Amino acid sequence: MSLRKLALKLLTPGCFKTNKPISDQKSQTSKEISSRRLSLSDVSNSSICTVLSDLSNSLIGSNLHIFTQKELKKITHNFSKSNYLGEGGFGKVYKGFIDEKLRPGLEAQPVAVKVLDLDGKQGHREWLAEVIFLGQLKHPNLVNLIGYCCEDEHRLLVYEYMERGNLENRLFKCYGGTLPWLTRIKIAIGAAKGLSSLHEEEKQVIYRDFKASNILLDSDYTAKLSDFGLAIDGPEGDETHITTCVMGTHGYAAPEYVKTGHLTTMSDVYSFGVVLLELLTGRRSVDESRHGREQNLVEWSKPFLKDSHKLDRVMDPGLEGQYSTEGARKAAALAHQCLSHNPKCRPTMSTVVKTLEPLMDLNDIPIGPFVYVVPTEEKNKVPAYRIEREGQAECEVVKNGKNGEEKEVEVKAKGRHRSRKGHRYRNRIKSLRSSTVYSDTALYRILGTGLYSPK
Q: Which residues does the annotation say bind ATP (predicted)?
């Protein structure tokens, strides 16, 4: 047995033996849980798994399921490569599927199974923090923890499956194309609501590791916070902060926390400001591939955030100008406030939510052209294509000619027509035959986030 595994057993003897009768421990723990939310500091090393077992059966624990490693191997096909989703500081993540056959009364659904890497950056303490916090905190913008496995040295977590993955991949790796403006604002609002719910708990929770990769997205692009391994209870009573060793991610951590180790909810607000900047600019918080000052997003962009005449210099070029000018100005001003070096000058997360929500209703977003493709079923004919511009009735239908070549007619605002043809364009037309392609901005207004839901 490795030294790491041996140390894990020594640290958590409650998973393997108990010094008191289980009934006595359960009754004592039930009284503690029923009176207040259980915190990480409440859990003694001698009764960890007993506390978790009681937590999973209590109302405040929302019926967490305790899985065996054998069950989790079964639903992930023995953690096969075909079910592999990714890897983080905690360990590898696999997709699985659970139903009543696995556990009676369990809703059939896809899940994500995180497997603790015993040689990784995180350990039992982070695993336990996930169970303690997500086992009790329930909110639409916090990822749902379904259950866990604490068996021998194995530590696994079972979450709801999030179809769109994390924000980092969606924003920077161009999966599925550039995120439209309104989708970005929706994500920012959801993430802000998640943080706000933590800060407004009777016993405050400081997330401490707010970043793009920890924001998961469902099929409707609803943002949910995940990875609570570094979360910690906030100050109590008359205390203004807690002092702890500096943990988090470079580029997102608040400067006062990095310098002094003093942690408050305002540290999370700073981190939110960084993510909001990433949504506005399409740039990472730290990018060493860039030159000089541009490597640090906050340092580079902050001078432009309060000047509406210079804001377009930092806005994401991928948006192609299709964003609300007024919305961008207000979001940039909010980011600037969140990034204040003085924590007292930063807004609360509830204020952030109130500031962002009206941005979804602004009507000054430029509407670009959209293409409507009408395939025909008639034999021996090339499909007809109808190209329109939003808000106009003008259109042109192009059918096959003698030489069989396909053309596009682009209708401009003044009614001018221009046709193009060639190998590259023919390939594009071919790809459009089986679907209808619209401007994201135009259809977002009509269909909302349903536009991005999988078929």
A: 114
Is residue 114 annotated as involved in ligand binding?
Answer: yes
| CA dist., res. 330 & res. 434, Å (int) | 40
Using CA atoms, how far apart are residues 379 and 129, in angstroms rounded to an integer? 64
Q: How far apart are CA 430 and CA 434, in angstroms?
A: 9
Instruction: Answer whether residue 410 shows pLDDT above 50.
Output: no
Rounded Cα gap, residues 444 and 394, in angstroms: 22
Q: For residues 138 and 149, give the distance between their C-alpha atoms in angstroms, rounded to a whole number.
A: 20
Q: Which of 1, 10, 81 lies closest to 46, judged by CA?
A: 10
> In angstroms, rounded to a whole number, what is the distance separating the alpha carbons of residues 298 and 312?
16
Annotated catalytic residues are 209
First and final C-alpha spacing in the chain: 48
- Tokens 């994401």 belong to 316
pLDDT at position 120 over 80: no
Alpha-carbon distance of 364 to 222, in angstroms, equals 24
Residues 6+ away with beta carbon under 8 Å from 272: 191, 192, 195, 210, 338, 349, 352
Supply the DSSP symbol for 296: B
Rounded to the nearest 10 degrees, what angle do helices 22-35 and 48-57 cross at?
Answer: 60
Phi, psi of 370 (to 5 degrees): -130, 160
Token reading at 18: 């108990």
Alpha-carbon span 374 to 390, nearest angstrom: 17
User: What is the rounded CA–CA span in Å between residue 83 and residue 41?
Assistant: 35
The residue written with tokens 């807690």 in the block is: 242
Identify whether the C-beta of residue 397 lies closer than 8 Å to the C-beta of residue 382.
Answer: no
Tell me what pLDDT residue 37 has. Answer: 73
Judge contact between 187 and 233, C-beta under 8 A: no
Q: Is the pLDDT of residue 167 over 80?
A: yes
Domains along the chain with CATH numbers: 3-160 (3.30.200.20), 167-361 (1.10.510.10), 370-438 (no CATH)
